[in-house]
Here is the input.
Amino acid sequence: MDNSAAPELTIVRYGHPALREKAQPIGRVTRDVKELVTVMAQVMRTARGLGLAANQVGIARRVALVEIDEKLTPLIDPELVSAAGAETTDEGCLSLPRLYGNVPRPTRVVVRARNLSGRRVTLEAEGLLARAICHEIDHLNGVLFIDHLSSIRRKLLSAKLKKIAEKRS
Ligand SMILES: [Zn+2]
Here is the structure.
């Protein structure tokens, strides 16, 4: 990234190699990182998503966002510290359009991440926010929600997955 006009980012779909990459740590929160967060937030809102990881715009760095109830939570170098509870419910992903599956997730999580000032912060989340954070941290590790589905369910979705992969941008 350079400092000229905001880079144009588009969401990549299932089948794109960036979605399977383990994203690299950010370390120092530079102006470029802040700009990436700003642009990713725009991309996420345009796509009407609750969250977006940098892998999903083809950048394998540990930056993700979650926005629930109009509250934007940037996750820079996030690490799951602890998780409790379990709930299985339908989940979707901007990189897997029109595809949903029942995914078990913890109901409460504690996460350490850097904020936009570069400081390490601890976040506690529950319910949908906890679910969304787990989904995004998965992305940064090259994991997709379909990986949590049963092999039978994945098999049933295989034709749809193939179609998404063929149309990938
Ligand atoms: Zn996703």
Q: What stands out?
A: Residues 93-95, 135, 139 surround zinc ion (CB under 6 Å).
